[in-house]
Amino acid sequence: xxxxxxxxxxxxxxxxxxxxxxxSLVFYNVYxxxxxxxxxxxxxxxxxxxxxxxxxxxxIFTVEVRFNVLxxxxxxxxxxxxxxxxxxxxxxxxxxxxxxxxxxxxxRFYHEKxxxxxxxxxxxxxxxx
Length: 129
Description:
There is one protein chain. This protein is of the alpha+beta class. The chain has two domains: 1-34; 36-115, no CATH class. 32% of the residues lie in helices and 35% in strands. It has three helices and six strands. The strands form two sheets. The chain has a four-stranded antiparallel sheet with strand order 1-2-3-4, covered by helices on one side. A two-stranded antiparallel sheet has the order 5-6. The protein is elongated, with a radius of gyration of 23 Å. The N and C termini lie far apart (77 Å). The mean pLDDT is 84.
């Protein structure tokens, strides 16, 4: 019996540490997902958009950016997918650092350098099926 107790005593700290890391990751994920990192309102104030999630590039896991839209202060669209990426993808904050309202109900996320690169290409697709 004493050998079993010694094994349990030596393994128990590993399980406690693993459990603490797991609980910490769960709490971090819930906190990051629910806390807005960006908020903007439409020109007339009808719509408000909140972005949640992780805007930075992750080191290990895949992360998402999601959005919530309020219309006249009431939930209109909740927890919708906008962007995801892992350590090899462009982060949201690098890929889309700028935003502007094109109308009362149109919000564009973009990178200004993409519009300063000259005349854009035109691609015409014709489907004859």
